[in-house]
Amino acid sequence: MDARVMQPDRTIYVDLDGTLIRSDLLWETLFLLVRQRPGLLWRLPFWLAKGKAVLKARIAEAIAFDAAALPYRPEVVEALGAARAQGRTLVLATAADRRLAEAVAGHLGLFDAVMASDGARNLSSHAKRQAILAHCGPRGYDYYGNSADDVCLFEMAGEATVVSPDRAAGRWARSSGAQVLPRTGSLARGCLKAMRPHQWMKNLLIFVPAVLSHEFLDPHTVAAALAAFFAFSFAASAVYILNDLLDLEADRRHKTKRHRPFASGTVPIPLGLALAGALVGASLTLSLFLPPTFLLVLGVYLATTTAYSLALKRMLLIDVLTLAGLYTTRIVAGTAAIEADESFWLLAFSLFFFLSLALVKRYTELLDFGEGAHRSKTGRGYVDVDLDTIGQAGMSSGFAAVLVLALYVDSAEMRELYAHPYMVWPLCPLVLYIIVRIWILARRGQMHDDPVVFILNDWRSQVMIGLGAAMLVAAAYVP
């Protein structure tokens, strides 16, 4: 019979970080501070110099915290609910700041008391054990924990439950035969998902200058373009990770984004930061083998995407203009990598075309939130009444891209590059088909992917792209 049933007078003490939730409140609140009060970041070293308890208290004071948004472990909440139904006394015992711990306890409604850090004492490891022993008295205690800091508490507990253990806690659990609630979800798969390798397809734009300059058969050009592709892909993945960490609360309110690795707690925040740093390092290393201009473009891309993640993504219209600019930056990077001449027509077409797709993305997000969507709910600068305006602007931008393409087909530059420029004219209706179809699907509520990724995966769009490529080759090489 379970010892917890046999000892109904023994209090159960429950750790919070990594045990009750799949995350760590110190890291969670640090990113909330970055999001909500970036002007206070310079104070972090001074708070930390006064001790970890002071740091936690000052951050908790500075932020707006929603306990309902945390990634709770359902198996732990269910077990605690069953214990409470049996008449057990439950205490939330955590190293998190008391303000946060009380908010969690209030949200769950399971705990009879809260023990937490208070700005003077960091209630972790041996300090927590001393507090629990003083609180429980001679009856002893049962304990839920997950980490190396909890091993000293496991050793003195009447019944220890080890939840998703780290290496040290796992060793202790195996040697003692304690009950273990294992990790749910693959950490490696979560890291790969956080990198979003499927989004790397956007970086195929880097190859566009090589194709249009007719240098795609040159080995040096192909090698340079490949290096640029992976450099941008690694950098983009690092930014996706940062973006997800800054959007934790908003993602957890979204019906699909709440399953992302950091929002769901599958991947720990410190591991995500380490992964992002490694990706940036790999990106910069590859850039050293390319012309210095490429490294400059990559630096602009990283700076802009970081600014986008921190602030620009929440600014009305600035967000979609930035997205369109970032797509165009990929083309500029491809030009820099192979040291080709920049094309005004290509950049103008890219800007209008990707502005249309960026507006599709915002349109779809706003449509998903439905009636009553507002800034605090969407995390963007748009509200539900903007839906029609976004749609009109997106369609207009798409038509402008086709107009630029038509003017290019009739330009002197086209006649210099292609023997039969008239064979490229059908590109205009092909691009028009792609744009209008995407917008029709978006208005029907059937656009569930990033529009750029959708184009690259959709067989109808692939047929249009293939036909367009065939026309360019025929116009250039048919005698």
UniProtKB/TrEMBL annotation:
Protein's membrane topology: Multi-pass membrane protein
Keyword rRNA-binding attached: no
Transmembrane annotation, as ranges: 223-242, 262-280, 286-304, 316-338, 344-364, 385-409, 421-440, 461-478
Membrane listed as a keyword: yes
Database matches in InterPro entries: HAD-like_sf, HAD_sf, Prenyltransferase, UbiA_prenyltransferase, UbiA_sf
Keywords: Cell membrane, Membrane, Transmembrane, Transmembrane helix
Location of the protein in the cell: Membrane
CDD domains per the UniProt record, alphabetical: PT_UbiA_2 (cd13963)
PANTHER family: DECAPRENYL-PHOSPHATE PHOSPHORIBOSYLTRANSFERASE, PRENYLTRANSFERASES
Protein name in UniProt: UbiA family prenyltransferase
Organism phylogeny: Bacteria, Pseudomonadati, Pseudomonadota, Alphaproteobacteria, Hyphomicrobiales
